[in-house]
Amino acid sequence: MKLLKFELKKLWKQKKFYWLLFIIFISSVGLFYTNYSVYEEKQKRAIEITDMYLEEINGIRHGLEELRRQDALSPIQEQQLEIIIEMNGSLLPWRYAINQENWERIPQLQSTFLQLLQEYVSHDGEFPLLQGIELESAIQKNEWLIEHQLSYEDEIFPVSPHLFVLENTSFLFGIIGLSVLLLLLGNIVTIEKEQHTIFTLKTQPVRKWEQTLSKFGSLLFVHIIFVSTALLLGILFPLLFTNYKLELAYPMPLISDNEVTIIPIYIFLIYRVIMFTFASWFVFSLILFISNWLKDSFTTLMSIAVILGIALVVTEYFPMLLSPFNPLYYFSSSRGELVQNSIVAYSISTGIVTCFLLFFSIIFQEKALGSQQGDGMKKPFRKGETISGNKLRNIFVFEWRKLVRRKLFIQMNVVLLLLLFAGYYLLAQQSIQKERTFIQNIEQSIEFFGNEENHIAPLNHYKEMAETQEEHREFYEGLIALEEMKIEYFQEYSMLMEDALDRYVNNNWDKFYEYLLHENRVRNQEEGIYEISQISHDYDFAGRFTVEVSIEEKLWLMENNVRPLFPGTLIPTIHHYFGKNQEGYEYFVEQNTKVDHSGLYSLYLLFQNHGQLAPIFLLLFLLGGGIATERGKKRTLSLLKTLPIAEKQIYIGKLLHSIVVSTLNLLGVFAVIVLMGAVFNRLGDWYYPILKYHSFSYTNSNKFTGSSVEGYGYEFLPLGEYLLHTITLTILVLLFLLTFTILLSTLFKNTLSVFATAGMIFISGYVLTNHFLTEKAHFSPFVYFNIPKITNGEVATILDNEKVNVISGSVVLFLTSSTFALIGYYLLWRKNKIDRLEVKERSTVNKSF
């Protein structure tokens, strides 16, 4: 018990409790404010749900009534039409209740609609928006609301206590919360080695297992504070700022093996807390286990993050690992719903793994001390010869030697290389597979459309109807002519695909692009089946902007003779007709996102997936501590002050060293990616087109001279030019982060305070700029953190501020970075001046005596 108190006191002295509570508070406040700011749109969101149902009902009704006009309506379809008309009528009181904000009555009205929908489905009807297990879930949930006399609530942006605490815990009891706990507590063992206090502990009559379990106990105590605070704030904020009451009986549907179970929300929260608790225990035990072989905090945190990251990726990549017996099952995005059986299995299996890791942590603890023996003797640089020169240069060399001596820089780059090679291998496999699948789909289409037997049935049917129904002969003859035109078109379409594949095999892209261009023009109703049948269509939710931009892309590719990339025929854009159908949009993006493992395009995909953040964060943690790294228990800054070097010179030396090393390292990472692609595939096409958006206001101004669709402008950038802009902005963002954290290091005594403060400022600045200061966003350096979306104009389009671009970003980031550097220099110059005056006054006083 005394050891546990000792460990907790150390955490208290390090102010980690303060930072933990502060992070939870800020996260909860930000999430609640986001939901509360759009609370007034609750009525609009509820109406949108009924609008989707109404649109689907009208479409089904139109089709059935068209069959009725043709006397082709079967008895079962007659019943479907009657039910659809009743469903349409049931939406009217539902919408009226929403307009009147009569939320208590909505479950009853929704029940009528769902009962009619269930009857419609029982008559072989299809309602894509709500079918199968989703329909059963909605029915049972609605029945629970009625039974417990609960009102309708907005679950998209919840502000009620029971729903907001659910969203708050969903955010904090996941990867985000795990990362916070890892950053704050991941060095609980290695910090003892860095400060050599572990040797003092070894002189005390404390057994190995007592020391290990006391550290694990302190981690559990912090975890309890983390969980309880997140739950408390999640309930407290809505109770203080809204009129909602805490309804612990609010229903939560659980779906497992095509069965729906409704449980109260408090049971669901208990399940979530249990699984997050055992997942955290696993991570805590992994920290204690890994720390046996590592001596510094940076390497420990990096190693654990890499291990967990790779394990999580492997878990996502192989479905067979998505099992409750996998400790990372809880953090997987593909895991199933929480059910009692999986919770019990996960808790038991993860608890056993945790016990094993703790056991091995105790067994192998002696190796931690053994690894430090002999650290006192190091081979000197330049065989011990000293060098003379400029003080700033000497400080720069001194900082570089410290970095090399600690070996963290080499370890970081080894980890980055491993990640790059693993990522490139997965990318190459995905690229090859998508190309193969795309070609196979074309071959299947050739076989289907080229076989006349697949299209002759409707033609024969219409011919038969024309002979038997003389009064409708003219109508059916029109249909016959149309079917004959379709069959002729299908033959031409099959030949076009066949020719495209033949030319593609011979590296002739023109015919292949003609085929892709034809596919786009079919969607645009310029060619093909829509033009033949004169059918009006809605661009299949892709949107007119997407279709027309895709056509322009194919023309660019043909003009520059660029090798095609796979899969898909369209470009996913931000202007589409999917609306609230997020799942449909994500599927569309997945099916049409181009993948290739050439050098330049591999680098492009790295930026698109924000892969540049990994080296940026590693370099920031390694080099951004500034003067704060010289403080602490070792206080090497005090030793440096005994030398004829001013503190401001130390500051400038650290700043220049971090800028040069981080810039060269980042460029090296990008070069390795391009080199891997060039060696294992090809360099890539400099002129491959990358879509760049323009804002609505700029497109409709007199300054805009480019192409536009539906009021939004666009252009294409060559891939090489896009990469140059993105690399430039990435380097400037990194320099901004470094100069800011190094400035903070002059104000704070330890690196944790520096990085925690910087993180809070960065996140707050980014949120404020993107949500509240949109008109002046181009003056804020924080808006440029979303680097790939700055380069392609997406942020400028969303904010409707064309000044948010690469040029303004480069200027703002450079000026703010320079300002931070000058402020830090001024603060230390002023501090040195005050120190000299104090020394002079003391010497004068001493002389007077």
Task: Explain what the structure shows.
69% of the residues lie in helices and 3% in strands. It has helices spanning 2-13, 16-37, 42-69, 75-99, 106-122, 132-147, 161-172, 175-185, 190-194, 197-202, 208-241, 265-290, 297-317, 340-363, 366-370, 391-406, 408-450, 456-468, 473-505, 509-523, 528-533, 544-560, 582-592, 599-608, 613-623, 636-641, 647-680, 696-699, 719-744, 751-771, 787-791, 794-799, 806-848; strands spanning 251-256, 259-264, 689-694, 707-709, 712-718. Strands 3-5-4 form a 3-stranded antiparallel β-sheet. Strand 4 (707-709) and strand 5 (712-718) form a beta hairpin. The longest helix is centred in the middle third of the chain and has 43 residues, at 408-450. The model is unreliable at 367-376 and 532-539 (pLDDT under 50).
**What structural category arises from helix and sheet content?**
mainly alpha
Number of DSSP strands?
5
Q: What is the overall pLDDT average? A: 82
Can you tell me the overall shape? globular
Helix count from the secondary structure assignment: 33
Main sheet: strands, sense, barrel? 3 strands, antiparallel
| Rg estimate, integer Å | 32 Å
The separation of the N and C termini measures: 55 Å
Sheet with the most strands: spatial strand order: 3-5-4
Helix content: 55-70%
Tell me the β content.
under 5%
As residue ranges, the low-confidence spans are 367-376, 532-539
